[in-house]
Design a protein that fits this description.
This protein is mainly α and about 260 residues long. It has seven helices and two strands, in the order ααββααααα. The longest helix is centred in the C-terminal third of the chain and has 55 residues.
Length: about 260
């Protein structure tokens, strides 16, 4: 009679269900000598089937190691996928931009400075105005000319004060927009999903601070200009008063007699 050796099928479902049995059987079989016969015969309807317990244990141990390698590969792929996801998050750009709002605020403040009355914020024009209107009065100038120059200086001073107040109002109007933008940027920074978004939010906060410093610079410039015009007017008025007083005290031709008519006839 012929002997048939039939191998037991190894599938992942069988491996998963017998994983605990593998670890239990593998150690005793690998460490203790086999005292029984290499094979046992079982009889069935199709003849005698030879079952080798040692071969069966080795097959189970190999299957368990194969399953462990597959699990390690799956874990490695999962780690790589998570790493790619994290990299994608770090490279994600911030969806909010404050550039347009900040540029509008700076443009509004710059327009107020460009609308400066009488004397603009230009070095050449300032030099010309001071030479023309704040220089030392000429002794030969008429009273009408002295009065016209005094009115011009007064107009410059009032215009400078008004410009300073307009810049103050504009800077104050920007405060609410800056507050709302700052709150938005802080929220964007706190909700950032990656390093790039957090960095971009921080850069936009720095840009907001730069815009606030720009407003502060414009305010100081306008206020300082108004104070300078006021002081210049005061100094020019003092010099003009000295000239007029000198004219009044300078001896003239004296009294000259003439004819007077008291009645028409």
């Amino acid at each position: 009679m012929r002997h048939h050796t039939i191998a037991i099928p190894h599938t992942l479902r069988t491996i998963a269900s017998t994983a605990a049995l593998v670890l239990t059987l593998a150690a005793p079989l690998a460490l203790t000598p086999v005292l029984t016969t290499p094979a046992h015969a079982f009889f069935g309807g199709f003849g005698r089937i030879v079952y080798d317990p040692t071969n069966h244990a080795e097959n189970l141990l190999t299957a368990a190691r194969t399953l462990e390698q597959i699990n390690n590969q799956i874990a490695s792929l999962q780690n790589e996928a998570q790493m790619l996801i994290n990299q994608a998050r770090d490279l994600a750009s911030l969806p909010h931009s404050s550039l347009q709002q900040l540029q509008q605020n700076v443009t509004r403040t710059q327009q107020l400075l460009d609308e400066a009355q009488s004397i603009a914020f230009e070095v050449q024009e300032v030099d010309q105005a001071f030479e023309r209107e704040y220089g030392r009065p000429d002794l030969s100038m008429s009273e009408q000319q002295l009065l016209a120059d005094a009115r011009t200086r007064w107009s410059n001073t009032m215009g400078g004060l008004q410009d300073a107040m307009r810049v103050q109002a504009g800077v104050t109007g920007n405060i609410e927009a800056q507050r709302a933008e700052m709150a938005t940027l802080v929220e964007q920074s706190q909700n950032a999903v990656g390093a790039l978004q957090a960095s971009q939010a921080g850069n936009q906060l720095l840009a907001l601070q730069s815009q606030q410093l720009s407003d502060l610079t414009a305010l100081l410039a306008a206020t300082g200009r108004a104070e300078a015009l006021s002081e210049a007017e005061r100094a020019a008025a003092a010099e003009q008063g000295r000239i007029q007083r000198q004219r009044f005290l300078t001896p003239g031709s004296g009294y000259q007699p003439g004819n007077a008519r008291m009645f028409n006839n």
